[in-house]
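Hey,

The postdoc asked me to send both predictions to you directly instead of through the lab channel. I've kept everything plain text so nothing gets mangled by the mail client. Protein one:
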Amino acid sequence: MYGHNNFTLVANMMIGIKKAVDSVLEYPEVRAEDYKIVSKFYIVPWAVLNDKENMTKFRNCKFVDYAPQVFHNIRRIFKIKTHEYARALGPEQLLAAYKGNFMGFTELASTGKSGSFFYYSHDSKYVLKTVSKEEFHFLRTILPEYYKHVRDYPNTLIARFYGCHKIIFYKSGIGRSKNFRFVIMNNVFSTGKRIHSRYDLKGSTAGRQVLEDPNAKMYLMIIIDSDATIARKELDLKGEGRKFKLEREQRRFLLEVIKNDSIFFEKNNINDYSLLIGVHNTEGEESGRPGMQHLMADHNTIRMSSSAALIVRLLRRH
């Protein structure tokens, strides 16, 4: 059953995350050897009581924490307190909230088109996402450059990675082990404001339209208007006649951030990236009329995140 299997997986991930976070020591600066540190420990696999298959399938599991000191410092750069992070991603919140009722759990969990599994923390601040072996190794390869970038440019719009882990389940009797590689990231749309629409912008118009079929355009518009999780593209934005108005200083600041992020992408041979924008309508919400949107200095009106294909495949929408 979907709820049982994934609930069990997330619960064990959270047990490992809690122990890993509690084990990290405080160092003011990242050392060269910190990128190579791999922390491993065993945990007793936990399963929901009515998930009898998983209760007997695995005898134990190993949790692997990659570069824990580096990610600890990344979280500190973004002003994330260790005890709040551990509480949001620890097993207590999950187990206390649902107690066998999977309705709430399935609202926070989903499976993407690539087969990746997503779980949003109960406070919606963090996203736990399983990734492929290639994506996992790529992130580890660029981690030194990534850390330097977020340290030097804390206002970066590049996806924020807070942890890089693997959990391995060892089967009872004869059978191969099963492992899951996953990362923990920020949820860029974690805001008290409702996100009415999203845009995924690459700066190109070739094939950049969700509403490509004229015969289905009206039907698709109804679906998109009713589902704010669908990201529109450049030609959709142009067709709506919507513009984003920025004050001069805000525009200068945003362009500087994008320039620095683009240099990072170029340096790491990443040539496919996009800007993800979320819009909260401050006027005409009920009518849904497109209008001039204002970018607020506190980013409450428009939420933005930049991502790159090999990094960004970790961010791919469901």
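Protein two:
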Amino acid sequence: DTKKPILAAAGVRGIIRILSPASMSCIRNFIGHGNAINELKFHPKDPNILLSVSRDHALRVWNLKTEANIVIFGGVEGHRDEVLSADFDMSGEKIVSCGMDHSLKVWNFNTENIKEAVKASYQTNPNGSKITFATVNCHFPEFSTRDIHRNYVDCCRWFGDFIISKSCENSVICWKPGNLDANRNEKTTIEDESTIIQKLDAKDCDIWFIRFSMDSEEKCLALGNRTGKILVWDLDVEHPSDIRCSVLSNPKCVSTIRQTSMSRSGNTIIAVCDDATIWRWQKN
């Protein structure tokens, strides 16, 4: 309501903390996950909605305004090990998740049940106090596959109707659930096939928990490696075979780059390393 920015942080204790950079304080805590939290994602259209994924094999969606836990994704057909990464698509209607069970799953965040739950999560009592809220449990993903990677899948992002994901196999893979001609809104089953569109070679990315990032328009992808270099691919091409990789390096940056973050325009890349250094790269 204040229109001021907020920061969400979480880690090994499984507690999500909402921080206000303006007041330099923690304004909310969210407790629900039974183990460490591996990634957080804000909804692309509603900044009050936050997605979290955890070592407890589940994904949770929260309403930061009312502190309601809207939905839990997991259970019967959910992940069988740690969930390492997840992402909303640009419309905020689908979620892709991946984990240590080698699988990638697509969840529907736009069902009537969930839409009603999101709406209900904003309701409060007349005096402003919180109401009792029944969390939705979603046990069945819309799509699931273990055919893309043969090891831990530690990062996944939507790329239009496609998905980009990586494991510790020296590559980043762009793929699509179902066959190439299938409409993304068609009903799929757990046994549906997937189609690999393009495989990008990524040298020295053979250890797990190295994350890539993209700009807001999905034109560039940046990925660090274990030798301190950043691989940058230009995705704004006519054909996947035209994608080219550039390498950013500095003689003093030799430690594993665990995560990169690109600015919305793609002109700035922030990289964090195992030796506790933070590097900033600026496009000329």
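Summary for protein two, as requested: The chain has a mean pLDDT of 93.

Thanks,
C.
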